[in-house]
Amino acid sequence: MSLKKPLAKRSNLQKTMAQAAVSYNQGYDAGYDDALLKMAQSPQPAQSPQPVQTVPVVREARNKTSDLDYKKGLYDGGEGIVDSILPDMDILPEISVHQIIEAGIAAMHSRFHTLLGAPEVNGEIMIALDTGAPLSVTRLGDGELLTLAQDVVMSMEQIRKEGHFLNYAGIQLPDLAARDQLVEAIRKADIVGIPKLRLPNFQPLAFAVFKAHGIDYRQLRLTLSTINYELHTAGLFRGMLANRRVLVVGNSAPGLSYVLVNSGIDVTGVVAPVEGMHDIARVMREIAVRNFDIALVGAGIPAVVIVQRIASELGKVAIDFGHLADSFVNGESTL
Questions:
Q1: CA triple 284-285-286, angle to 5 deg
Q2: 250 vs 147: CA distance, rounded Å
Q3: Residue 154 DSSP label
Q4: Where is 298: in which H helix or E strand?
Q5: Predicted pLDDT at 170
Q6: pLDDT score, position 280
Q7: For a FRET experiment, which of 17, 201, 272, 276 has its CA 20 to 30 Å from that of 283?
Q8: Is it true that the peptide bond before 87 is cis, omega within 30 degrees of 0?
Q9: Which of these ranges, 16-20, 101-105, 187-191, 219-223, has the smallest mean pLDDT?
Q10: Residues 122, 317: contact at Cβ < 8 Å?
Q11: For residues 308 and 240, what is the distance between their CA atoms, to the nearest angstrom?
Q12: Which whole number is the average pLDDT over 233-250?
């Protein structure tokens, strides 16, 4: 157990850094583009400089501008907020932003909302499997949240800009029917994973879409949207799947099935592919005729609906397995 905790922390840190890097890279790219534009608009000398001189100049301009953008973003997101809140003639010498935020969070303790962790979710799954009860564990990432935000939190133009990847996740914009299917699935799901990170299209968007669709988050049983990885790093999947009939669903299902079978897991069915939200009805018909105790579903945004329907319509346990399936297939993860 002592070996698994550092791995889990390192995994969470890597995910946090990767997601935070998106915001940094946007500033970096903006600075780079701005530098090139300014150079292009500036008067050119009579004799063009040699190419070997141009590259360092462009790189230096890019680095300086992006560094300024980064520092400005860092100020705006921390010290700038403090400056805007403090009275004009008051300062907080020798007090860091971290200390200020820490004190503020401590003062908000009564408003904390505690999520279910991997041990609690695993316990719920094991009880459901042992008693033959239905249970759905769904997860909401930025793709699901952007789909839910269509025409209620964000304009379609903004959704297209922010969610340029949605077509790869099973959504063809605009798709208000998909939005409404997700709303219904969230209302009926047993456990719903939401993002921990407070990046714009993550946790803040989750609560914005809940409010817009009249979903009271206090009535939901919430966990992390990365609960699939949390269960894996805690080493809980083998015990969960042992001596169970397992169904795998999604485009990675054939490969995942092979890995599971080689690990001694009883895979009784494979349903693949899942071709977007419009394919859910066909996929559910295929699932309905299979014999299984638990389903692992890796199907992008449609997985939210499929997982919830497996539980509510077929009375089985279903987990949104997500890209963890790909990690098993390519050998990055082992059971």
A1: 90
A2: 20
A3: B
A4: strand 294-298
A5: 79
A6: 97
A7: 201
A8: no
A9: 16-20
A10: no
A11: 19
A12: 98
In the chain, the amino acid numbered 315 is: G
Nearest to 292 by CA among 132, 180, 120, 138: 132
Distance CA 58, CA 37 (A): 11
DSSP 79-90: HHHHHHHS-TT-
Alpha helices in 94-170 (DSSP H): 97-107, 118-131, 142-148, 156-162
Residue 171 Cα distances to 15, 92, 213, 314, 320, angstroms: 24, 49, 19, 25, 17
User: Token pair of 274, please?
Assistant: 């899942």
Residue 50 DSSP label: P
Higher pLDDT, 26 or 256: 256
Average pLDDT value for the chain: 87
CA distance 124 to 191: 9
> So what's the pLDDT on residue 288?
98
Q: Find tokens 């499997």 and name the residue.
A: 129
Higher pLDDT, 53 or 10: 53
Q: pTM here?
A: 0.79
Structure tokens at 91: 């300062």
Q: What are phi and psi of 223, to 5 degrees?
A: -135, -170
- How far apart CA 320 and CA 307 sit, in angstroms, is 6
Beta bridge pairs of residue 250: 298
Q: What is the DSSP letter of 316?
A: -
C-alpha span between 299 and 250 (Å, rounded) = 5
**End-to-end CA distance of the chain, in Å?**
15
Looking at residue 49, the DSSP 8-state letter turns out to be P
Q: Which of 32-36, 216-220, 262-266, 331-335 has the lowest mean pLDDT?
A: 32-36
The tokens for 100 are 């200020």
Find out whether 269 and 248 touch, Cβ atoms under 8 Å. yes
Mean pLDDT of 102-127: 97
pLDDT higher than threshold 90 for residue 294: yes
Q: Is the pLDDT of residue 306 over 70?
A: yes
